[in-house]
Amino acid sequence: xxDMSLSQIEHEAGxxxxxxxxxxxxxxxVVFTALVGLLVAPVPVHPFIGFVAILCIAVGAxxxxxLNMWWDADIDAKMKRTASRPIPDGxxxxxxALGIGLALSGFxxxxxxxxxxxxxAGLLAFTIFFYAVVYSMWLKRSTAQNIVxxxxxxAFPPMIGWAVATGGVSVESVLxxxxxxxxxxxxxxxxxxxxxxxxxxxxxxxLTETKGRRSTRNHILxxxxxxxxVAVGIGFTSIGGPVYLTVAVLMxxxxxxxxxxxxxxxxxxxxxxxxxxxxKVFKISLYYLFAxxxxxxxxxxxxxxxxx
Length: 308
Prior knowledge:
77% of the residues lie in helices and 0% in strands. The chain is mainly α and 308 residues long. It folds into two domains: 7-168, UbiA prenyltransferase (Tetracycline Repressor, domain 2); 170-308. Helix 3 packs parallel to helix 10 (157-166), helix 11 packs across helix 12 and helix 11 runs antiparallel to helix 14.
């Protein structure tokens, strides 16, 4: 067998490679927040319809991921964090990723329309468009506000879940959107601080590249301060409760302390000291949304059981 044949076999795509195209880690957060949006809504949903809706949202999220990887293959190849993704690593052809992304997008939106309602399907279609076109193709490479504006794509899932149940939009669903939207910038900027050289090599105008570390630290603290009232305020709506309020107060105090610690860092500090704080805040941010949406789910369960 020739060396070329061996190379082709070694790089032949498997199911795991196609699944990786759909960014399963991001998909897990999308599915969870959409599920919470659906379950905390005041209108009950038949379990089968609910299952189909969440499946459509998951597939739509996966489609967005595939389209993003197709478009970003060139810059993914330049960053250590993303160089091993299926397209830059040569395991999946760009055309395959594009085809998968488009096919899954159409399938998810049409099935959600047939299973639920026009608003939910429209929100899912807009979310896919926003992430693939507005964020990936336009904002990401053109402005340091890429994460700020682009964060809307990841904030829509609980609104979609709520729309599946109610057919509408409410203060509660908008606040769930706002929680994710305001969390996204400090979450990604904390990451950008300790992978700064990656974004620089790829030519992405992340805030750390265009304004520097000091400005990025200021922005992290400012957005965290704006995030706190949104997060705590949800506790005083119809979907809030004692569990959520407790979690919100504790998690936001923890996150705000981390943002303050980043803000007090100096460029004169050692790289190890700066990175230790940045990594700590990034890890806190990973727990942040799961804790808040998990608490909403617990309070909804307590209400359903007649305890609240």
